[in-house]
Design a protein that fits this description.
Elements: H1 10-13, H2 29-37, H3 43-47, H4 51-55, H5 62-75, H6 84-91
Length: 97
């Protein structure tokens, strides 16, 4: 019997979402298009934005898009306005000691 390979990208299995492409995450076409328009390619680039930045016209996320971004990021234990240091601390909490 052949085993099916997991559909999750390797980085996602390891909980490494920072470098994951926005197009590989579970976002709607609206969010993916707004990310493309705003030149946001990775989850790491996305989380560094604030809600206010995403609502600016040049990003075109809109309120529904921002709400979806926040919901999906929450499943990754991430949030808007997150820094890389906060992300690393989430992955390796023992390194804070």
């Amino acid at each position: 019997m052949e085993r099916k390979q997991s559909a999750q990208p390797k980085s996602e299995k390891q909980g490494d979402y920072w470098n994951m492409k926005v197009t590989d995450a579970d976002f709607s076409a609206r969010v993916q298009n707004a990310s493309y328009t705003g030149a946001i390619e990775t989850i790491g680039e996305l989380v560094q934005k604030t809600e206010e930045e995403l609502l600016l016209k040049r990003h075109t996320f809109g309120k529904k898009g921002v709400r979806q971004v926040k919901e999906v990021l929450a499943t990754m234990e991430m949030w808007l306005g997150m820094t890389y240091d906060e992300y690393k601390a989430r992955l390796h909490p023992s390194s804070l000691l």
